[in-house]
Amino acid sequence: MVEVRAARAAEAEALTGLVMRSKAHWGYDAGFLAACAAELRIRPDEVTARRIVVAEDPQHGVLGVASLEGAAPLATLGLLFVEPAAIGQGVGRLLYREVLRRAVEQGVCRLVIDADPHAAGFYRAMGAVPVPAAGWPGALVRFEVAPAPLADWARAWTGGGRAVHVGNVAEFNVQFADSSLDREQSAAHHYSCLAAFYSPLPSALVLPRAVPAGWTDLVGRQLGWTGVEVYDGLVERGPGLADAVRARPALAARLTGAGEPLVPWGLTRPFALLTGRPWRPGELRHESKAAAHGLFERILADGGHPWIVLPSQVRAATRWTAARLLTARARAGKSTVVKSEHGVGGSGTTVVTAGQVRAAGGARAVLRRLPRGPLLVEEFVEGPTDPGAARDLTYDGFVDPAGRVHEVGAALMDVTEGAYRGATVGPGAVPEWAEKPLLAFGAAVGRELASSGYRGWFDVDFVVDAEGRLAPTETNLRLTGPAIAFMVAARLDALRGAGHLVRIADRVELGARLPEAQVDELCADLARACGEIGAVFVPAIPTGAFDPAPWLGVLVAAHSPETLDAAEALVRSGAAAVGALFDAAPAAAR
């Protein structure tokens, strides 16, 4: 394993030789190299002052050298050179990340890189932002990066260290008899792959179904993880992941005895038994959409949230009552939201227009198509007239074990026909006018949840009305898709510099069903292609690639909205194109 350490003064001459060999690798002639020699020379008396570090292999062979030069708040990446034989093996990436880590420790806010043109693609892929030329040698390409520590909320979430991630999505959902789940729990088990991202830095992943080894390797490279243990294939059918771990005493002891926090998708009785956490089912009462609505009413009754408006909601005791309410609204020409008490990703939530009631032959016919169980009949909030305006927003935060509420942030969600499709987090993702009232109301919800005894992650979902006000619609007392994007943004900011926008897309269609090796190859190709434009691609849900109608869940990240959109388009087109080879095959060969 390659390790990084501080350089020694006695190595100066050898390190200079490495620098010159690395420079010569790019085909420069002897005259050019001679002209560079004085500038690139490392002197023994400056090794410490230039903060020079080296990467060495287990046999103590030096593979690369880098330096962090200057004083905070502005510093320079003075050197980053890799032994030619080691180029392409991740040594440069390791050194670059070490320099950024040290820059954070030194209080550096802005790191400048004047790169050899041959290295420009590397720095772009590492997240450095190109700066337009203005007054430096034309042979160099200038980049800048803003070194950043791990976000305060992320440190509070798991103590800033590594954590064990338990993908108990099905186990959480089954507590509420969620009608969106099939008997085999396929949807939930796919979503359990997001356990890779339950904190910025995992030590172990615990997953119900088997996942491709190539997937975890690629995710680790993209997010700078090492030594992550994967325990998968524990539950092929049904929801009982925590029980499956408890049935393996050695595994349970390994996971619970390392002194690292165990992070679940959501709290359950089996998870409480696994971890020794007190089980208080009442903590989760606001997972109910009716209970959440009541919580919102209590907050708004105290005033102080003028930009928040609450849609009316009635809990229908019977289907007859629901039909009567729906009929009355339809006769008035109004659309209605009909909700089950619980649901995931928009499941159990249906928007019914007056025209649909008429076309179905009445409200009873509409309701027969909906899941059984209690129904909530809610006012439909008409959205902005501008089709490009923000419509679906969310707040994420958590309550720590001491009852303190931590704000994570706001996100823009992609919701289509009532179903959640993904979300974007990061600078500017949420309209400026909405951010302050959204964060204030989300924090108020967090305080109410804390006072009710809840401890853990939560979100509050909103829709925007025609007047630009925010209407809260539900809380989720668990991790969420936007939560995953926040975790990845925190990791990338610490790894590549501050300011990442991250988008999670739950479902990107594949053009063909591929063997596992080809899925790995596709994902590696997409990661390289995104890296070339300065973006990051991370496959988030790989197991959907093996469904009869194949798909991937993905994360893309970038420092600008334009690059983020370009990366998503690149990924979607690349995923769709995998079927082109089969479509182009001669009919006789099929």
Give structural attributes.
590 residues; 23 strands; alpha+beta
Structural write-up:
With 590 residues, this protein is an alpha+beta fold. It is 35% helix and 23% strand. The strands form four sheets. The protein has an eight-stranded antiparallel β-sheet with strand order 20-19-16-17-18-21-23-22, sandwiched between helices. Strands 1-2-3-4-5-7-6 form a seven-stranded mixed β-sheet. A hairpin with an 8-residue loop joins strand 13 and strand 14 (349-352). It is elongated and about 90 Å long. The two termini are 47 Å apart.
**Major sheet:** 8 strands, antiparallel
Please tell me how large the radius of gyration is.
27 Å
- Indicate the percent of residues in helices: 25-40%
Tell me the structural class.
alpha+beta
